Amino acid sequence: xxxxxxxxxxxxxxxxxxxxxxxxxxxxxxxxxxxxxxxxxxxxxxxxxxxxxxxxxxxxxxxxxxxxxxxxxxxxxxxxxxxxxxxxxxxxxxxxxxxxxxxxxxxxxxxxxxxxxxxxxxxxxxxxxxxxxxxxxxxxxxxxxxxxxxxxxxxxxxxxxxxxxxxxxxxxxxxxxxxxxxxxxxxxxxxxxxxxxxxxxxxxxxxxxxxxxxxxxxxxxxxxxxxxxxxxxxxxxxxxxxxxxxxxxxxxxxxxxxxxxxxxxxxxxxxxxxxxxxxxxxxxxxxxxxxxxxxxxxxxxxxxxxxxxxxxx
Length: 313
Hints:
Layout: H1 9-13, H2 20-37, H3 41-53, E1 78-80, E2 83-85, E3 105-108, E4 111-114, E5 121-123, E6 126-128, E7 148-150, E8 153-155, E9 168-169, E10 190-193, E11 196-199, E12 203-206, E13 209-212, E14 232-235, E15 238-241, E16 246-248, E17 251-253, E18 273-275, E19 278-280, E20 288-290, E21 293-295
Parallel strand pairs: 7-9
Antiparallel strand pairs: 1-2, 3-4, 5-6, 7-8, 10-11, 12-13, 14-15, 16-17, 18-19, 20-21
């Protein structure tokens, strides 16, 4: 079964990836310099757009009360120190700030998942089967010397129920590194079941990949059930509104500035605008107006840098 591996930029380029905490001050300095030299409305919008366009530093726009410059992180992000983090996919903050995934694991849906297929373990950076690996027979570093390894025990010959794969004696019905035959390896998120690679719990097969239906925004609760990326996220197999948004009917809306649901679901402003949850005649006193919404494009994740530019978490 095909699965696209999750790799860091360090693995792709061969160079260490700077930590987010190291990158954030660089972006902050750039934004301050831009603010000093250019003070126009256009520049203000550009600063907001930069905050979205450089996810390696901020991972999203900051969200705050409309009409103000104060705020925290955008929808679906968490503030870890001074940096906005997507804790569903960050190896250093997996599921919460400071929860680090160890070597050989990736953060998938807020859970640290081993890069090794189910039933194997990581030893010295490699995925091995403790049931059949002669260098790690029964556990990391437990070598068999001139003997073979079968069922996690060193012996002179392969035990019954195993297959001779050189110095390894795997049970090809269950060994994830010899699944069905010698050297047929299952992918990350898979297990060997009756000699076939299949998705291991809590993963399910969707479009040829093993995904967690409980937290995958593209396959939430069932394959193909996609959450609205800019306003919803998948939690416990259900699409829920991102932080700061409220569900009104089939939509997740910002009650502070939605003219159809201003202050509460169904409160329609008619031809007026909505600002701070109130129907108003104009957006006077607010930095920006996007349609009938009074907002601040510096901090609004639904209008980031310019009207209609949404930040995807």
